[in-house]
Amino acid sequence: xxxxxxxxxxxxxxxxxxxxxxxxxxxxxxxxxxxxxxxxxxxxxxxxxxxxxxxxxxxxxxxxxxxxxxxxxxxxxxxxxxxxxxxxxxxxxxxxxxxxxxxxxxxxxxxxxxxxxxxxxxxxxxxxxxxxxxxxxxxxxxxxxxxxxxxxxxxxxxxxxxxxxxxxxxxxxxxxxxxxxxxxxxxxxxxxxxxxxxxxxxxxxxxxxxxxxxxxxxxxxxxxxxxxxxxxxxxxxxxxxxxxxxxxxxxxxxxxxxxxxxxxxxxxxxxxxxxxxxxxxxxxxxxxxxxxxxxxxxxxxxxxxxxxxxxxxxxxxxxxxxxxxxxxxxxxxxxxxxxxxxxxxxxxxxxxxxxxxxxxxxxxxxxxxxxxxxxxxxxxxxxxxxxxxxxxxxxxxxxxxxxxxxxxxxxxxxxxxxxxxxxxxxxxxxxxxxxxxxxxxxxxxxxxxxxxxxxxxxxxxxxxxxxxxxxxxxxx
Amino acid sequence: xxxxxxxxxxxxxxxxxxxxxxxxxxxxxxxxxxxxxxxxxxxxxxxxxxxxxxxxxxxxxxxxxxxxxxxxxxxxxxxxxxxxxxxxxxxxxxxxxxxxxxxxxxxxxxxxxxxxxxxxxxxxxxxxxxxxxxxxxxxxxxxxxxxxxxxxxxxxxxxxxxxxxxxxxxxxxxxxxxxxxxxxxxxxxxxxxxxxxxxxxxxxxxxxxxxxxxxxxxxxxxxxxxxxxxxxxxxxxxxxxxxxxxxxxxxxxxxxxxxxxxxxxxxxxxxxxxxxxxxxxxxxxxxxxxxxxxxxxxxxxxxxxxxxxxxxxxxxxxxxxxxxxxxxxxxxxxxxxxxxxxxxxxxxxxxxxxxxxxxxxxxxxxxxxxxxxxxxxxxxxxxxxxxxxxxxxxxxxxxxxxxxxxxxxxxxxxxxxxxxxxxxxxxxxxxxxxxxxxxxxxxxxxxxxxxxxxxxxxxxxxxxxxxxxxxxxxxx
Lengths: 476, 476
What we know:
Helix content of chain A: 25-40%
Largest sheet of chain A: 5 strands, antiparallel
Oligomer: homodimer
Radius of gyration of chain A: 23 Å
Structural class of chain A: alpha+beta
Strand content of chain A: 15-25%
Shape of chain A: globular
């Protein structure tokens, strides 16, 4: 799907690459390579002549140096959980970072953790937890996503509202550049104004400018209090207003603020075992609110109860249930987390990962919903997600009784309609997932020629031979 | 002080530049120009053939386009409050952004404020406040610093611990590039993964890669509760431990955590009118703690009192006073804010704006203090600052009775000693103030050749003619 395949490397180049990766550092075994070549939604399938799996930065550097000398393109890969095809090779050498997975240092006083890029995100969270600290980045693929991939794609997830995206959680990086040199930028400083902030170039670049091999991550105090509620609201506008009230009343303790539409909840209740309806009646929109604090405190519960009561009286809140224990809180989250899965039994689903300014959420949802229904009568809009960040997963389930393949064939048409409305509201057509190959060409319609040209200049400067994940993000 | 002067532009170039800036958009009046040519500590003095003061992005773009065509270097300037000579021209055309000072938009629902770069920082804070929001960046020069200069230097200040540096407070930028094209990156999104994050290049670049003309800033709920205390601790290690306890106990509400040494306090009490000693006895170190919340809450006071009592029992806290009202809180802050000024009557002062990981603060302070006293017997160390960020203003007052000029002549020698110890602890020789011309060459001793080369590549790519604030930050 990603265009032309790379030219096959010569046997001599392959031999040198294997030597650089060490005896256990490579594979040509098709069954070992296979899972690296398909993206989990099976939207992208690739090929590679060689899987490299070095276990040290020095070995990565040696590999990239050979690639530069021989003009051999390579594709870096972490846990292979990306959704836009960025990690799938099309004939290039595949560089898996999964064996580069040591914890290099933990510094509790400095609230930092230095890890190699192949560490699994869930393990990073666990390591932080064992030191009585929090690494807040959390997303559904955290059991297999690597920290390197997470940083390379500037991943988001459910805690962005409070703690930011991956970019905000990185203090320092170690990167193997496109010529094989190693940039050691592993600093653990909160303030450092000594020139251009080079790490920003590699965060979110999807491996197109260099290979991230290690990172210094920010840690936070571990939460000791969690309050979770589901709240029925009349419309998204009320949800946005409620978010601001809740932020003020809780002193900025809102960690999650997730929007769920009635139809999405109905799908979850219909298809997900054990899911229970939070309310006796149906409501057009439900928000899941989570407040957390590192203090053991009753203040969050008070803020939550008082705000919900107050806003009930004003009509902003129609009904609300506060979790009485951890199990109930987890049940509420399961409603939200199952929303994508619950769409599957309903047939084909066309997905959009978009963001708009919070002030435009209401208008965007109204206009986009009307436009897709006009273009595809009977289409069922399931718009949910990280409302607190302005990030909506604007998913479309096929009309009841429609043919799945025919509906999915309408992907580009419907997507064009949605993305045009996103753009008109100053939004982004890829809030979390990146460009990869999926949106590489489409983005040129929404960014100015000046911006695309700046991106190309950066690409050509840092990867002049176009060997770093070529064909992804931007063409040189 | 910054090396060679730029070649004078031709009369025709000057005529074209004046025309582009419009009738009120330029000056050759020496008395009007004079205050733009000297940095406020009088460490840097410059010259310019022409002061340009355009009032629109289009005019800035027209000016830069002429500069590019004629290879005329220019120096952008905001409020002229920089401390490292970055804003002072050495014969270049001077581009003041102060008339580019409109508020373009405020979006309360999105918590964003769009301003032009000449807006004064204090006015930006005020505009946010009038909308019942907080723009948290605060520093002593805020009455004259512009937001453009603040962003161009990635300024820090007293609220970084809670809200981050300028970089963390910018969602979008508008920039005039070195060839005169305008990049409109004025997005107000919390999540946008559509390619390289170009704004990061211009933030903190001190005007060497382009001219920032406008920005979308993040706003926050306005604080409604403030608790302020001064706390005597036995040593900096106790201060770091106390910071972590206070963060946990308050749920991350610590907004300020400032370290003050006994000698610095003594200077303040001796020289600053109205300053009052917080404690009856002398203590080696005092920290100023500020907790804030957008909620009206007694929880902060409880967390503060309980933590101080608990840590008193454990010996981490020797004495503590909590402000009973706003006036007392302001008095505490005045002690901290006067510390630099109070050094002046004590003679010459050699200043360092450094940061180290929080875990290294104690070792750094001990080693650096011993080393400077060994090199300059009688030198008086006044190390104070933003402990919460690992950012210490490691200032040295001359020995009692020494000759000021002779002491200041030792600046480079003492500075080399301090910076080497900073580097050994993985720190930064410019935490807040940037490189400008002051530290442009020195930084090459502390950064790897790879990093300097990357910076040069970026400079050459975005400013191939070397006309944007040449000679600052990095040589191409």
